[in-house]
C-alpha cells in the first residue's frame, strides 16, 4: 500500500526548499555550458517527441532531489494503483479510469461484474460502427441524404477537450483525406451561442450529439431544446438528427428522442473524457474511427512511460516535479502554455481546464486544509501570435512566469512559402528557439528600457509533426503531469466541488428565492 | 505641467498600504449591508452601462484614499496632456493618439503641419468610401463579381483587436441586416494558418487587407506572399484582390501591388489600433462604415468620462485604482476577465495583449527600474463556459484571483428557449450574479472539501445589450483603465521593447549565425 502524505511532510521536499534559486539559468545557459545543457537535459517522450528542460532552473543536484521526491512520494506506485482501479477519487468514492479507455495498463478492473476495459472498447466500437454507417450513408437524414456536419452539444469537459482536438487535426485531416464531416460545438447557456452555430449550419444535413453524463447539465439540456425547436421549425424530426453520449443510468440513456445512446461512466471525469465516448463519437464522426484510435494509441504510449521509476524515463513525472519546484520552492503562481502551432490554438484552453480544475484545491485528499500552494494559473496562446501580444510582460514584466513551449519540425498542410531565404515553418521554429534563449539569457543594455534580465525558465516539447499519435501523446503527457502533481500536493485531482456553490445560488436566483446582495444583483440584471 | 512620479513616492500610496486587508468582503457582502453595497458601489459608464464594484475589497475609507491617490498622481491631468498631444510614449518619443481617432478630446494636435484629427477622419472616410463601393459592387473582382469575404492579414494588434470586435458583432450584424461580408484573419507565421484559411475561402470573391505599419513585419509579409502565390495559382490578379493598411512612409504605401493604401501613423500603437484604419477598414467592410462609426462613438463616450476628476464619475479611473490596490497592496498577481457573452469569446485575448503588453514593464518612463510590481497576468474565457472549467481553482484554489465580470441583460440574436421556467438569457444572468456572491461570501461546510472560503473579489460591468456602441465603450473603458494604471505605475504603457530580443535572435537562427544553446536548439528543431 502506498502512503498518502502532504508535500510538506516529505524529507525530499525539505531538501528541495534548501535549493531555492540554486541555478541561475542566465549563467547556466550561456556559452558552451548552455549547449551542453540543451544536449543533455532532455528526455524522450512517446511518438518520437522529446521533453527538453535545459532552460529550467535545475541542475544535477536539483534533479537528484526531485528524483528522491518522486520516490518518497511513491508517484509511480500511486499511478499503478490508479491503473489497477483503486479509489483515487476519494471525495466521490470513485475509480479513475481514463487511461484504461486507452489501454489495459494494470490489472483487470471489474466493477459490478463489468470489466471496464471491455466496456470502454465496446463503446468505442459502437461509436466506430455508428460513424462508419454515417460515412457510408447507411445512417442518413429523413430524405436518405448524407449527414455532412456534426455538432457537439456539451460544456466543460464535453466541449473544451473535443473542440481542442478537433481543431488540432481538422487541417491535418483535410490534407490527408480523412475529414469526413465538419464538426461544430455549442456549449454556452448564452442563447447566442446556439443561435450563431445554427445560423451557419445546414440543419437538414446536421447530426447533433448531446453530451451529458448525468443527463441533467442545465446548459446542455437547454441547448438541446434550443436545437430541437430549430429542427422542428425546419420540418425535421429531431429524433433522426440526435444521438446521446451519457451514462447508462441517465434519463437520456433509453430515451426515444435519440437515434442511439453511447455510454460513458463515473470513472472518467469530464476534463479527462476526451478519450471516452465524449471525444470518441464526435472525433470518429469527424475524422473516422481509425484516426480516433490513433489518438488513443498515442495517449497510451505516453501512459506507458508514466510507469517508469526513473525521472529520466518518465517525462510527465519529470515535468510535474519541475513544476512543483517552480510553484512551491521558487514561488511562481502561473505557467504559460505556448504551442508554436496554429492547430493547437485551443489546446491551452483545454489544459487550463484540465490543470486548474484538477489541482485548484485547498484541502488534501482527506479533506484537510494544506499549508502550501497547489495548482497554478494556466494560460496561453499559440506562437508566434503571443510574441506580438503578452510576451512583453513575460520578457520585461516584474513577475517571472514559467513557460511550456511546444514545437514541431514540420507543418501539417505541406504548403509553405520562402521569404528572405527561409520557409515560414523554419521561421516558426527559429522563433521558438530564439524565445527560449532570450527568456533564459536576456541581454544587458545601457538603456534599461531595452534591457532583458533573463532568468525566465521554460521547457520545450519537440515533435516531428502534429499527427493523431503525437496529439494523443501530448494530451496524455499533460494529463499525467497533472496527475503526478496532484499526488505530490496530496490533493484529489478528480473531483470539482468548487463548481457547486455557484450552481446552487443560480438556482435560487432563477426561483427568485434570494435576499441581500444576490437579490440586488438579480434586480440590476433584471432577472 | 504634471509631475511624473513613481507610485512608491506618493503619500496616498503609503496611506493605501496601511489599509491592506481592510475589508473582509465575506462579511461586508453578507445580509442587508451587502444589499446596500451593491446598490451604492456602482458608477455609471458610457452607453448606459454601469460599473459595480460592491464585491471588491474596498469601503469608503479605501475609496477616499484611492481618490487621494488619483489626485496626487494627477491622473486626469495626465490624460488631458495625452489628449493634447504630449509625448507620452517617451521611449519612442511619440504622441499617443488613439483617443483622437474617436473624437477631438483636447487641443488640436498638429504634427509636421498635419492636423491629426483631420488625418484620422480622412482615413475613416477613405475606408468608408472603399467599403461602400465594394458593397455596391463598384469595386469588384476581375469578372465584375462582388467580393463576399474579407481576410485581414496581420499579427498582434492588427489581429487580436479587430478579430475580437468582429466576433463580438458578427451575430449582432447578422440579425440586424448589416453583415455585409464575412471576415477572416491570418496572423501566425505557421504556414498552416494561411493554408487553413485559404482552404475554406472562395479566393475569386475574397478581398485581402495586408496590415503592417512599417511594411516590414515578417509574419505579415510572409503571409502576404503566401496569399499572392495562391491567388496567382488560381489565375487571379493579386493587385485586384489586395489593399494595404500601412503608414505613409512604408514601402507598401505607394506599391502598385495593392488596389489602394489606407493609412495609419506612429501615434497609435498596435494594441490600440482597432480605432484606426487597422480596425476601420476590415470592420467597415464587414459591417458597413456606419457600424464602425457607432463603435467609435461608443469609445468616445468612454473617453469623455475619463476627463472627470471624481472617481465616482470616472469608471475607468476607478477600475484602475482598485486594480492597483489589488496588485500592489493586496498582492494579487492576476486578473481574470470573464464576459458572460459568447460574442465576447476573444475579447479577453485582446485585453490580454492590451494590458500585458502595455504595463508588463520593470522600468519607469524614464528608464529607471521600479521597486514595485506592475501589470498583472490577464486571462479569461466567456461564462458560463469557464464555470465548468477553471473556476474550480478560482473558488477553492490556494491563490486569490481578482475577477472582472461583464454581463448584458439581453442577448444579441433575439432567439431563446424556456426550460424550467426561465430563458437561457435569464440563466446566463443568474449565473453571473450567483458567481459574484459565491466568490465573495463563500459557504462553510463541515466537509472541508465542500467548503468555500469566500473573500474573492470581483467587479461587474452591466449593460443592456452588446451593440456597436456598448462594445466601443467597453473597449475604451479597458484601454483607459490600462492607461491610468500605467500613469500610476509611472511606466510607459505605449512601447514594447520586450519583443525585440526574440526577433533579433530569430534572425540569427535563420542566418545560421548561432552558437551555444541557441545552435543546439536550432539543430534539434532542424532549422
Primary descriptors:
alpha/beta, Rossmann fold, homodimer, 527 residues, 15 strands, 3 domains
Word description of this protein:
The structure is a homodimer of 527-residue chains. Chain A has 527 residues and is an alpha/beta fold. The first copy, chain A, folds into 3 domains: 7-96 and 305-497, 3-Layer(aba) Sandwich (Rossmann fold); 99-295, Glucose-6-phosphate isomerase like protein, domain 1 (Rossmann fold, 3-Layer(aba) Sandwich); 498-527, no CATH class. In chain A, 43% of the residues lie in helices and 12% in strands. Chain A has 18 helices and 15 strands. Chain A has helices at residues 11-17, 25-28, 31-40, 60-72, 75-83, 116-136, 160-175, 191-199, 218-233, 277-287, 289-305, 315-329, 347-359, 391-396, 424-441, 468-489, 500-510, 516-524, and strands at residues 42-44, 50-52, 110-111, 114-115, 149-153, 182-186, 206-211, 242-247, 261-264, 334-340, 377-379, 403-408, 418-419, 422-423, 458-463. A 6-stranded mixed β-sheet of chain A has the order 1-2-15-12-10-11, sandwiched between helices. In chain A, strands 6-5-7-8-9 form a 5-stranded parallel β-sheet, sandwiched between helices. In chain A, helix 5 (75-83) crosses helix 16 (468-489), helix 7 packs parallel to helix 10 (277-287) and helix 12 (315-329) crosses helix 16. The longest helix of chain A is centred in the last third of the chain and has 22 residues, at 468-489. Chain A is globular, with a radius of gyration of 24 Å.
Amino acid at each position: 500500500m502506498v502512503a498518502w502524505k502532504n508535500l510538506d511532510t516529505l524529507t525530499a521536499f525539505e531538501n528541495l526548499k534548501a535549493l531555492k534559486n540554486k541555478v541561475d539559468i542566465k549563467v547556466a545557459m550561456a556559452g558552451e555550458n548552455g549547449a551542453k545543457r540543451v544536449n543533455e537535459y532532455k528526455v524522450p517522450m512517446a511518438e518520437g517527441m522529446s521533453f527538453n528542460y535545459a532552460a529550467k532552473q535545475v541542475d544535477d543536484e536539483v534533479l537528484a532531489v526531485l528524483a528522491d521526491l518522486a520516490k518518497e512520494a511513491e508517484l509511480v506506485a500511486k499511478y499503478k494503483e490508479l491503473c489497477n482501479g483503486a479509489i483515487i477519487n476519494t471525495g466521490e468514492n470513485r475509480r479513475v479510469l481514463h487511461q484504461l479507455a486507452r489501454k489495459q495498463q494494470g490489472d483487470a478492473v471489474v466493477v459490478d461484474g463489468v470489466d471496464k476495459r471491455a466496456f470502454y472498447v465496446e463503446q468505442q466500437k459502437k461509436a466506430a460502427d455508428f460513424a462508419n454507417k454515417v460515412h457510408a450513408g447507411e445512417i442518413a437524414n429523413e430524405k436518405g441524404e448524407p449527414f455532412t456536419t456534426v455538432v457537439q452539444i456539451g460544456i466543460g469537459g464535453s466541449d473544451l477537450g473535443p473542440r481542442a482536438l478537433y481543431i488540432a487535426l481538422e487541417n491535418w485531416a483535410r490534407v490527408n483525406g480523412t475529414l469526413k464531416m465538419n464538426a461544430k460545438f455549442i456549449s454556452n447557456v448564452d442563447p447566442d451561442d446556439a443561435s450563431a452555430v445554427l445560423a451557419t449550419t445546414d440543419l437538414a444535413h446536421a447530426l447533433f450529439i448531446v453530451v451529458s453524463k448525468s443527463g441533467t447539465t442545465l446548459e446542455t439540456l437547454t441547448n438541446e431544446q434550443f436545437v430541437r425547436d430549430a429542427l422542428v421549425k425546419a420540418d425535421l424530426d429531431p429524433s433522426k438528427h440526435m444521438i446521446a453520449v451519457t451514462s447508462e443510468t441517465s434519463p437520456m440513456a433509453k430515451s426515444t428522442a435519440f437515434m442511439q445512446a453511447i455510454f460513458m461512466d463515473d470513472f472518467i471525469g469530464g476534463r479527462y473524457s476526451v478519450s471516452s465516448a465524449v471525444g470518441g463519437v464526435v472525433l470518429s464522426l469527424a475524422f473516422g474511427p481509425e484516426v480516433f484510435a490513433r489518438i488513443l494509441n498515442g495517449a497510451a504510449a505516453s501512459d506507458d512511460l508514466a510507469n517508469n521509476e526513473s525521472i529520466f524515463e518518465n517525462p510527465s513525472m519529470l515535468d510535474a516535479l519541475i513544476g512543483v519546484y517552480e510553484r512551491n520552492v521558487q514561488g511562481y503562481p502561473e505557467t504559460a502554455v505556448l504551442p508554436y502551432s496554429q492547430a493547437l490554438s485551443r489546446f491551452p484552453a483545454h489544459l487550463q481546464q484540465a490543470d486548474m480544475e484538477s489541482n485548484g484545491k485547498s484541502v488534501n485528499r482527506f479533506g484537510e486544509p494544506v499549508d502550501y500552494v497547489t495548482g497554478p494559473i494556466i494560460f496561453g496562446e499559440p506562437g508566434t501570435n503571443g510574441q506580438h501580444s503578452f510576451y512583453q510582460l513575460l520578457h520585461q514584466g516584474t513577475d517571472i512566469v514559467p513557460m511550456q513551449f511546444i514545437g514541431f519540425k514540420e507543418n501539417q498542410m505541406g504548403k509553405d512559402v520562402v521569404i528572405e531565404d527561409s520557409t515560414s515553418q523554419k521561421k516558426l521554429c527559429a522563433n521558438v528557439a530564439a524565445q527560449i534563449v532570450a527568456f533564459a539569457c536576456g541581454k544587458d543594455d545601457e538603456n534599461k528600457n531595452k534591457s532583458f534580465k533573463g532568468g525566465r525558465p521554460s521547457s520545450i516539447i519537440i515533435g516531428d509533426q502534429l499527427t493523431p499519435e503525437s496529439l494523443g501523446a501530448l494530451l496524455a503527457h499533460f494529463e499525467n503531469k497533472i496527475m503526478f502533481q496532484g499526488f505530490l500536493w496530496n490533493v484529489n485531482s478528480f473531483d470539482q466541488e468548487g463548481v457547486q456553490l455557484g450552481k446552487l445560488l443560480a438556482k435560487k436566483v432563477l426561483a427568485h428565492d434570494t435576499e441581500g446582495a444576490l437579490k440586488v444583483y438579480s434586480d440590476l440584471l433584471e432577472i
